[in-house]
Amino acid sequence: QRPQMAPLVQHFVSLVKGLLERLLDYRAVMGDDSRNNRMSCTVNLLNFYKDINREGMYIRYLYKLRDLHLDCENYTEAAYTLLLHTRLLKWCEDQCSPQLMPSDFRSSQTQRQLKESLYDTIIGYFDKGKMWEEAISLCKELAEQYELEVFDYELLSQSLRQQARFYENIMKILRPKPDYFAVGYYGQGFPPFLRNRVFIHRGKEYERREDFQSQLMSQFPSALRLQSTSLPGDDICNSPLQYIQCFTVQPVLEIPPRLKNKPVPEQIINFYKSNYVQRFHYSRPVRKGSVDPNNEFSSMWIERTTFFTAYKLPGILRWFEVTNMTHSTISPLENAIETMEMTNEKILTLINQYQGDDSLPINPLSMLLNGIVDPAVMGGFAKYEKAFFTEEYTQQHPEDREKMSRLKDLIAWQIPLLGAGIRLHGKRVMDDLRPFHDRMEECFKQLKTKVEKEYGARELPEVDERRSSRPRSMLRSYRQSLISISSLGSECSTPTKPHPESFMPPESPAPRVQLRREDAGMLAEEGGEGEVKLRKSKKRKKRSSVIFIGEERERQSTLNTKRLSKKQEFRSDTNLSEPSDTPSLHSINSRSLPTITGLSLAVLPGPELDEGVDTSQRSRRDSKSLSVCVSDRTADRRSKGVINLLFKSKLSSKSSEEAKPAPEQPTHF
User: Fold this and answer.
1) Residue 279 contacts residue 260 (beta carbons within 8 Å)
2) pTM for the model
3) What sign does the CA torsion over 181, 187, 193, 198 have?
4) Given Cys at both, which of 78, 464, 503, 510 links 629, Cβ 3.0 to 4.6 Å?
5) Helix, strand or coil for residue 103?
C-alpha cells in the first residue's frame, strides 16, 4: 500500500542484519583465547558504527581495540587506533561532546585539550614501537600549534627536543625488519569473517615463519596445514574441515616522492622497505624448455604472485585482508637482473654496517665476498655470462638487448663494490685468516681485469668533504652515481641554510674585510690587546644582546678607565670634536638597522664610556629613545667600525697642517 516505504524498510533490515551478524561473531569469540579473532570482530563492529555515523559506539570499540593491542604489546597498532579518534577532533576551543570524551581523558574540556593529550599518548606509543617517522609528523603538528596558535614556547621547546631525539634514533638505533606472512583460511569450518579468505600478517621482531606458524596452528587445533603454496581447489574450499596455508611474502618497496632520485641514507630507506607497504610478492621457480644440467639459470623461470591488501601495513591491525591477486612470469634474464641488483644492495649494506660498527663479526662479510669472487664456491656471475652473453641467445632473443646491457652494467658496477668490501675486509681480518684473505684478493684481481676488459671500468664517485660537514656512506654515493654522475657535486653536498632571521641583517664579508684593512691603524690605537681580551670575555659569557644601562657598569669601570686616555689621545690627534657634535648613534645605525618603535632601549656601555664622563651628558644620551637592536656582541664592533670609517673620511677632508697624522701601524691579516 505504501511503496515509498519499501527502500527505507529494506535499508533498515540490512542494517539490523549486518549488526546482528557482527554482534554474534563478536559474542562467539569473546570466550575464545585467540586475541586475533577478538581484534578482527572488534574492527568489524567499529567500522559498522562508523558507516552509520554512530560516533559514541565507534569510539567505545576503538578503545576496546586499543586495550587488546596493549595486552599484546602492539604499541604501533595501538597508536594507529587512537589516531582514528583524533581525526574526529579539531584544533579549536569548542567543548567536547559526551560521545567524544573517553573515560581515559576526562580531565580534558575542549577539543584542543583532548587532541593534545591524545597526541602525547600516541607519540609515546609510536616511540615504544620504534615508529619514529610517525611520531615526528605528530610532533611537527604540535609544534605548529604551540608556535602559531597558543604561543606556548615552553611546550614548543619540549616538542622540538623530542623531535630531535626521534631523528637521532632513526640514524643510530637498529630496527630489525619484520617478516610478512600470507595466511589462507580454507574450508567451511572457519567462522564467516575468516572463511576462504587470505590475509597478510606482519610478524614481530625476529619472528621466524616456523614460530609464527606454530602459534597460528595452536589457535585452531583441528586445522590441517597445506604444504602447497598454490591456490587450493573447490574441494578444499567447500570442505567442512579447516585448512590453513602459510608462507612468507616479500614487501614491495614504495619510495615516497620526496625521496625519489636522491642519495638517501640506508637507515631511512630500510624503514620504507618494510613499512607503509600494501603490495607483496611471492615467487616460485619453475622449469621451462630444455634444462641445461651445467647451468640452471638459463631455464629458471619465476612465477610471481602479487598480493594487494585493503590497507597499508602497519595499521590498526597486524594483518589485513587481501583484496586482489595478480600472477606474472619472470624470464631467466629478468631473474638474473633482479638477483644482481639484490646482491649489489647486500654488499653495500654490509659495507656500511661494518664501517659504522667495529664490533661486528667478520664472518658474514667473508662469506659474501668469497662466494662472489671465488669461482670455485658459487660461480658468481660467470653462469649468467654463459647463459645470456652468447651469440645464440642474442639471435634467439633480439628483444632482450636492452636487458642484456642492463645486466652487463650491473656486473661492471659490482667490481668497485667488491673492491671496497675487500679493502675493508683486509683491515678487519685476523692474522689466522690472512691466507684466506690473500687468496680472495688474488681472485678479485683476476676478476677485475676480466670484467673491466669486457664491460668497462666503473668507479664510485669521490665525495668532496669540503662541501659536506657530515660523513657520506658508500651506499649514498653508489645510489647517487646511478642517478646522475654529472650532478654529483650539487646534489651530494650539504645544503647551506639561509641566515636566520634576526634584528640585524647579515653583512657581506667583503665590506667587513675592507673596513678592517683601512682602519687597522685606528683599531690598533684603541687598545688592541685590551680589545682582544674584551672580545674573548664577551664570547665566553654569551650575555644578552640588549641590556639596560646600569647593568655590569661597575664590572667594566676599571677597563673603561684604562681605555679613556687612549680615546682622548685619538680624538686630539685627529682634531675631532666631542661625541655630542658627531652624528648620533641613532642616525648612523638607522641606515642599516631595523627599528623597534615604542621601546626605549640602551646598548651596554662600550669601551668609550667610563665613570669620568660628565653625568649630565650621559643622562641626556641615556634618556634618548634609541631604536636600536643588536643581534650579538659583534654588532657593537661593527657599528664602531662604521664610526671609525666616518672619522677616516673626515681626516681625508682636512689639510695635513691642521691635523696631526696618526702613526702607521703594521697590519696583520
Assistant:
1) no
2) 0.67
3) positive
4) 503
5) helix
